[in-house]
Amino acid sequence: MMNRYLSLEGAIGAELQASLTPADAIALLKDGVKRSTTEETTQRNRSALLTDAAGGQYPYAAVLSCIDSRAPVEQIFDAASGDLFVARVAGNVASPDLIASLEYATKYAGSKAILVLGHTRCGAVKGAWAGLEDGHLTGLLGRIQPAVTATKAEVGAEDSAENLDRCSHVNVRETMGALRQESDILSGLEAEGKIAIVGGVYDVATGEVAWLD
User: Fold this and answer.
1) Which sign does the torsion angle of CA 55, 61, 64, 70 carry?
2) Out of 3.40.800.20, 3.50.50.60, 3.40.1080.10, 3.40.1050.10, which CATH number does the structure's domain 2-212 have?
3) Is the pTM of this model over 0.90?
4) Beta 84-88 vs 113-119: how paired, if at all?
5) Domain residue spans in the chain?
6) pLDDT-based confidence at 199, cuts 50/70/90?
7) Given strand 113-119, what is the order of strands in its sheet?
8) Cβ pair 193, 23 in contact under 8 A
9) pLDDT in tens, 9-46
């Protein structure tokens, strides 16, 4: 599987996507991080990618991540055009529209895994920790409050970098839970073994991803 992926000149095709298991998709994500952090990144032919894109898309996974400019998803996973669905929103929260997008990515477009990707030094987590309320941010940051409440109960109310990063981990787990609880489609696909829902936290200082069990 890995050799087939790494030998691609253009985009992933339907046959390769269909042959992948959820475990394969997770392995591809993890190997992508390894390549990006060891400067062994791959480079596929742009003309071939564009030609293949015209015929359809067959991403192996979907990533729900934060909008933070320091967490460029395709670079983190050494991914090319057509490899990943990427849904980005401040705080990597599970809003209805994002859940719908992930339902499409998996049930209808064939992706085999969903990764909820938080990151260190997250501004949305810091805002939620401080109880920021302003415009539409109020509702968005409200989705992070369960993680804030749980983390403060565990480590206290000090807004240290360590505590905020801990909250980012908890928030990823909360989002994973929301995907399962709020989407019968996603929870059903996971129960049938057709997809995996996993979590990770990207370190903006090192480029590494801490994978959640």
Assistant:
1) negative
2) 3.40.1050.10
3) yes
4) unpaired
5) 2-212
6) very high
7) 84-88, 61-65, 113-119, 196-202, 209-212
8) no
9) 999 999 999 999 999 999 999 999 999 999 899 999 99
Tokens standing for residue 152: 């403060």
Selection from 96, 66, 67, 102 nearest residue 84 by Cα: 102
Burial of 161-186, coded b for 16+ CB within 10 Å and e otherwise, reads eebbbbbbbbbbbbbbebbbeebebb
Q: Whole-angstrom Cα distance, residue 152 to residue 137?
A: 21
Residue that has been written with the tokens 């981990």 in this structure: 169
- Select from 184, 134, 129 the least CA-distant residue to 160: 129
Q: Write out the two tokens for 156.
A: 């206290």
